[in-house]
Amino acid sequence: MTLPNQALVLFSGGQDSTTCLAWALSRYAKVETVGFDYGQRHAVEMTVRPAVLQKLRASSAEWDARLGEDHVVDLSLIAEISDTALTHDVEIAMQANGLPNTFVPGRNLLFMTVAATLAYRRGLDVLVGGMCETDFSGYPDCRDDSMKAMQVALNLGMATRLKIETPLMWIDKAATWDMARTLGGSDLVDLIRTDTHTCYLGERGALHDWGYGCGTCPACALRARGYRQFAGYAAT
To answer: What is this structure's pTM?
Structure first.
């Protein structure tokens, strides 16, 4: 069923956000996208975004008609004020507080705030993000409680009725691959596998069965394990 709402998808060019974009395109009459350039170590994700968007358009006349403007916002201040393995060339490791140093404090909170500001100007009433607390690295700003609190704060502070949707919140990576297959068939799965980027180190050398990446960072490990679980289910 097509809903009358109009959505803004936080679209990085990775597996999760591409799946979320397909999810939004299957539900909403109008969908726009926003990406954030925040000095990320894996800035190649910003490079692959346009091609992924173009291929999504080409995959479906209906999706092409629904997919509107893409926006890119400079949030380089995140790299300036943070000291993490996603914004600096340091080894990925666990910290004393129990969180990996790939955690960028406040990143998703700032993303949502900026997206809400853009949505306000564009007349969009749904924000869609790929946050998940099932298969994730323990980031507190990916939790359902955090997103619910953001929705309340944004609506109070902006006198709006924005809704935050997180379609991946309660599913693992295998189920995320399966969602893509349900939404767009094997063509969407192949697009995600070969054209999106997830690797924290920005590695796009060898193409693995699950996609490009170093194969060892936490993002690659989750993506690879999920794909192989998904492929095993699909074969049975």
So the answer is: 0.91
